[in-house]
Amino acid sequence: MTTNKEQRTANSELLSLRGIEKAFFGIKVLKGVSFSVPAGGMVGLVGENGAGKSTLVNILGGNLQPEAGTLRFAGADYAPQNPQDAARRGIAFIHQELNLFPNLSIAENIFLTRFPRAGTTPFIHRGEMHERAAELLRKVGLEIPSHRLVKTLSAGERQLVEIAKALSIEARLIIFDEPTTSLSERETTRLFALIARLRARGLAMIYISHTLADVFRLCDDIVVLRDGEVVGSGATKTFTTEKLVSLMVGRTMNQLFPERRAEAFGSEEGAPILEVRDVSQSGVAENISFSLHRGEVLGLSGLMGAGRSELARILFGLDPRERGEVRLAGEVLHHLSPPNLIERGVAFLTENRRSEGLCLDAAVADNLALVTLPQHGRTPLRWLLRDSLQAAVTRIRSVVQLDSKTSDTQPVRTLSGGNQQKVVLGKWLLSKPKVLILDEPTRGIDVGAKFEIYRLIHGLADQGVGVLVISSELEELMGLCDRILVMRSGCLVDDLPRVQFDRERILAAALGTAKEVKS
Amino acid sequence: MAATPVTNLESRTTTRLRSLCLSEYLVLALTVLMFAALAPFTPGLGTSANLLNALGYLLPLFIVAVGMTLVMITGGIDLSVTSIIALTSVVGAKLMTSDGGGTPAIIGVLVMLALGAGLGALNGAVITMLRLPAFIVTLASMMFLSGFAVWLTQSKNIYGLPGSFLALGQRLPIAFALTAALGVAAHLMLRRTVFGRWLYAVGQNATAAHISGVPVRAMTFAAYVASGLCAALASVMLTGRLETGSPVLGREILLDIIGATVVGGTSLFGGMGKIAWTFFGVLFLTVLDNALNLLSLSQFSITITKGAVILFAAVLDAVRNRFVVGRS
Amino acid sequence: MNRAGQRLLDFAPLLLFVAVLAFFGMQSGKFLEPRNLVNIVVQASSTGIVAVGMTFVLLSAGVDLSVGAIMFVAAAIAGKMALAGSPLALALLVMVGVSLIFGAFNAFFITRVRVAAFIVTLATLFIGRGLGLRITETRAMNLPDSFLQLGAAKVLSVPLPAWLFAVVLVVAHLVLTRTPLGRQIFAVGHDVEMAKKAGIRTGRILATVYLISGACAAIAAMVTLGQLGAVSPKFGEQKEFAAITAAILGGTSLFGGRGSVLPGTLLGTVLIQTIENGLVMTNANPYLYSMIISAVIFAAVLLESLRNRALKL
Amino acid sequence: MKRITSFPLTFVALFGALLCGGCGKSDPDGNTSPPSAPGAKKLNIGVAFETLQTEYWVAGFEAIKAELKKRDITMLEAVADQDASRQLQQVKTFITRGVDGIILVPKDAKTCIPMIRAANEARIPIVLFNRPADKTDAVSTAVVADNRTLTRDTVAYMIEQAKKTGTKHKAMVVLGDLGDINAIGRRDGFEDAVKGNESVIQVVSRVPSEWNQEKAQAGVANALQANPDISFIFTSSDFLFPSITSALKAAGRYKKIGEPGHVILGGFDGDATAYQMLKDGYLDATGVQDVYFEAQQSVQALLDRREGKTVGELILDPGFVIHQGNLNEMAPRMWGANIKK
Prior knowledge:
The structure holds 4 protein chains of 4 kinds. In chain A, about 30% of the residues lie in helices and about 25% in strands. Chain A is α/β, with parallel strands linked by helices. In chain A, the strands form 5 sheets. Chain A has a 6-stranded mixed sheet, with helices on both faces. A 6-stranded mixed sheet of chain A has the order 16-19-20-13-21-22, sandwiched between helices. Chain B is mostly helical. Helices cover about 75% and strands about 0% of the residues of chain B. Chain B has helices at about 10-40, 50-75, 80-95, 105-130, 135-155, 165-170, 170-190, 195-205, 205-210, 215-240, 255-265, 275-295, 300-325. The relative contact order of chain B is 0.18. Chains in contact: A-B, A-C, B-C, B-D, C-D. At the B-D interface, α1, α2, α7, α10 and α12 of B face α1, β2, α3 and α6 of D.
């Protein structure tokens, strides 16, 4: 089946959008979007950040109302005024930032707006609630008592709870918005298995993701959005990665990863810039030793909870270490703390962009300037040299190619994920780092932006910066890095130069068994 | 947030700017409006004597509010300021009067300021080192310090302060110069120095700030020290103005201080606030208070009107934010 | 472990409470007599009931500075009516009505006009105080004995105020832990925007919270009237601070989403009252009261935060 | 950038304006009041109270109002809500409005000095109602009842009653706000009277009420719990009697004079409650400040000063102890007896 409406019979059509339009501050973000989702079908919705995907999702969810166009769902008009309407009609959302309350139990999160009552009393029928919750959890394959507080769950488990929640409203359409961004390999495979099971039970889905491989793997149809317009739609088989990407970015991209200059491969010849010896913190890292060389892009792979991010946080002095030595350009660092390390040219981009990377309500310029402020302060009063500051900000904007539509005074909150990440990167690049630690640098970012960030990373490496990249996307590491370290439960278990890169081997090392490996 | 409009967004940026300006000066505008509206019916409102008198009342209030603003920008709050005022007042007075051996005024003032800063440092240390909620910490120190002040004096006020000291509180030009200097200094510190930017960052997102190398604890600590210092300075003025070291000095003005700061537009949740706003807030409350007194209304009408006007200002602010800026 | 730790956290003040009891117990033999312990609860009940309402507000990440003023107005009106000879029941009914009106007033400006709760309730505080003074003509009113009798009345040899306190506590506890409203309050308190996205009618929840706070203020005012049989212009002054302190002592967070009335607020209130009671029982130097109380408050919060930290590691 | 730089300007400009506007006229003396021809026009007198939060102050307020009305003088009122700084502002406000005289209830003995100064500078006569100022070069007349002496006399009377019973009495005193000089004066008066009578009176409990009825009620209840045999209670103000009686009732100790187990009660102020309790025979004595005398003297003093007559710095209100013995003849002068409805 294709989403081309002439060729489809209305009854097979579960959700249809016709000429949806929406504008903010007089700027059109949706320009007459039309497509439809067949009953039981799965449509992949792809596009760069800012293409209008999230606006579309918000309209479907009743958080926003379109200025023009019509929605139909299950053969009736559909004009949701609020999230409740969407739920009532059987449309569920799995958001990128999960919508769960850590201070409530699993069951309470699932039934938050529709608690089962004990008869006519105002009280919650806890027995029934937990029964039904357990039932739902079983359906999504989560074997955890439903009275556990959500704050004690891993990202993957929370996702499953979200889906259980979707099932609890007898959803007929589930909309996934970047569901895998915070999931480990294993959790992802688990999620896909579940999706397959749900589809078998006739649920329709819209799947929004930047991980094109997943889209190809899961969806029947694909709809490509660019600048608020549908620039391409059709059955998945009619697309190739190249075609898809060029449709999304509006130009032909012949590769997902930039060329790495040949001589950099396995660049052991570059002098070691960061040396880690027997760094240990009980329960997190055990005797971690490795060195990062000038001009090297070093990947750190492993499952969620293998201790990758934890290691990075230790190295940057955010978490304590019990033993071990860290040398920077030969000099031993006794006291690890952000100011100390920043001064010595270490930069750390965290995996939690919104909660740890940015001051969301502060202006773009202020965020960009944050790390390097002292450089622009004239002692003794630390008087701000605003011209040099402004110059630096303007310069770095162009370096990271921040969307020129964004103004310096705009709150970062209003930026797309990609641009937000560029701001974080920018603020660190301003500090002219010798060592750059990147934790999930491309999480939730579109292909175009990804490519630009990859190029930035390589550019820095070429200038002799040592880059340590942590990522859950193996393809990314393999495409980007000169060398990959693999961690499992706090230990380094493998170390492969680019020539030996091998997906199977890395996964096997990460999982600790050659058997579990899936392609 | 410095404003450098990007050409292709001219319209949007300018509207933003306009709304910002609006919000910047709304409270001031209200004050002026109120003043103009009341002047005809209020005998003596406009007279220089009255303005000076109002000014004398405003200065100390503003000084304390400045410290409060710095603390609030970091996302905290300092309920202990009034007690710090009281304690520094009695300690300073004890020193400078006979039973303190008549220490010279300069020393006395310095001791008062040092004490204020020290008490602020105590709050700051507890809050940053032990990571306790500022509200409860400063609430506790409020109770403790005021209790301590009363105990120290056994409820007796201390008087007979040296004239050189009284001058500080009573010669308006001096007090004014001090206050203006402090206000402008604080403003410039916030807007034009690294420290200022750091303070905002701490209030906006402490974690991100920490990772970005901002000395979060140091800045928070400094904010409370500053608050204590401001309280002490205000105490010097009030003590001089009332010629008395009183253990209950300023006991009643805590809500006025916080109220003025918040009415000015500084957020209780941190990351947002300006000395200018606070100044407008204080001006607003003072003029309101002064006018209501001049009208010699009965106490209850004064209280009611005060509440109503505060609410009105807040509502205006909220409504404008919704319609001019829009939610984004 | 984590959950167990959470419960421990809620109990943090308990240890301190026991310590305080033990200390005064040693000082004065009479202190631990059941009659005195009942006294403590009775004396804590008024503040405690306000603190329960305050807990609801704090859980929703708001604050209500107007409770004291509301108590004053309600009591003043009831007093006037009683003196004018209208039946007790009617007066009490009117008290609840008045308080609900004030609560609704707060709710309206906070949820509809979206003014910061702090400012709205601050304004209500001023307005309420002013109204109260006007009604009482800033005079103290001595009410008919019917009020005092109500306050002294005993059921199963426990005074009525204590019963009221207990009932309010239990109901509040059930509402917070066992009803959709309660759980949704926790959600809203954790993150309003998220709650909205999740389909909760946040406006309604917030409004309810301030109504509850108002109602509690009314009940507290009744209890106080029952104990004093008089309305002075200082009626209910500083109650808001006492209530907030009690709630926070009980482990409720100022930033919403975390806290409890049982045991939290109960402990917080009773702890403070116990100290004040003990200080009188041991005829302590009047000048030391506020210093001692503040010291204990500090200790309690420190204790809790330490446990909190231990939990995190 | 413009917005940022603009603030210091606004700041200085505004302050500057206020300041210069002021300096222009404020020297040599800030008196802007129109020269009022004596007698020609109706007089204005400003009445500034520190608070109206107890019946006593209201009574005083009313008494002054009545007195002024009687003399056909306009009265401007202001209440400082217990804030000395605000009160200073209010006094200066009166001066601004060119009143012909000021009656002031200062927050305490010292904070009023600058206010008196201001009045002196403006050549406006000022009278302190019920609270004296500490010795100072500033000129004023204070009409006061001496808290300490009057309390001492009251407690002395109570002790006499105690002696008659022939037994030793355990005593409790309910203190006011420790930050309020009246409360302190009364506390000291109490201690004075008790000193030397340890054989009859043993003070077992000093309860700080912070002038708060609830705290007083709890305090008394607790003290009675600690020492059930307390038989002698003095309260620093009559407005706390409701709290005390309710606590006594709860403990079953509220007995008429003469009844077995009667607790000797004494207070200060002489308000309506106290009067009622005297009449009903529960209250032994209370120290009454003669509001009418004070009001009359205050206004008189103002007028005398205006006419250049010399008026003393201090006019003492003897006040009087009212007790079962002199109830009937003294009641008419007890303000509490008259606002009774």
